[in-house]
Structure formats: structure tokens, C-alpha cells
Amino acid sequence: MNGWLDVGALVKVLVFGIVAGAGLPALFAVGVRTQAVGAGTVEGQHLADDRRPMMTAVSYVCFALVAAAVVVGVLFVARDFIGHHTGWYVLGAEEK
Questions:
Q1: Are 35 and 29 in contact (CB under 8 A)?
Q2: Does 62 have pLDDT greater than 90?
Q3: Can you tell me the distance from the alpha carbon of 14 to that of 50, in angstroms, rounded to the nearest whole number?
Q4: What is the predicted pLDDT for the residue at 32?
């Protein structure tokens, strides 16, 4: 670290930006694709005899992970507000 740039903090922000900025949309896209395959739709053709319940379950797991990340992100941003109004200090919020 020098007076102008904190390289450790920069790397943390860069890694989180890549994970959240590219990883979550990619995970959502994987969920959409696996749901289509699980329903028997391949390359725009609906094949009712070719259902794959395991792929549908994988898609629900992908969607649940994306939803959990969104909820945790909102809670992280609003942690001080939530703590002040409810007394429930989460995700590192401190009582003031």
C-alpha cells in the first residue's frame, strides 16, 4: 500500500465485481438453459418424451442461488437501516 493506492482493496473490489457482475448473470443463464433442457426443449423443438427432472432441479438450484445473492446484497446495503429500525444488526452492522 502506498499513499495513493490500496492494492489489496483494489483486488478485492475487482474480484467481487467480476463475480457479481458476470457470475450471477451467467448462473442465471445456466439456470434458463438447464430448465429448457429439463423440460425437453432442445434447439427450439419441444420434445415431450425427453423430460429430464434432474436438469429441472439443477435449474431451480441456480435460480435459488441467484435469488439468495440478491437478498444478501440488499440486506448488506440496508444493514444499518434495518439495525436502526428493528434492532436486528446483520452482516456486520454495528449499533450506533
A1: no
A2: yes
A3: 42
A4: 94
Query: Strand 45-46 to strand 41-42: parallel, antiparallel, or no bridges (unpaired)?
Result: antiparallel
Per-residue model confidence (pLDDT) at position 48: 63
Q: What is the 3-state secondary structure (H, E, C) of 33-65?
A: HHHHHHCCEECCEECCCCCCHHHHHHHHHHHHH
The predicted structure's pLDDT at residue 31: 96
Task: Give, as one character, the DSSP assignment of residue 87.
Answer: S
How far apart are alpha carbons 54 and 45 in whole angstroms? 20
Q: What is the pTM of this model?
A: 0.74
Strand, coil or helix: 11:
helix
Determine contact, residues 60/39, Cβ cutoff 8 Å. Answer: no
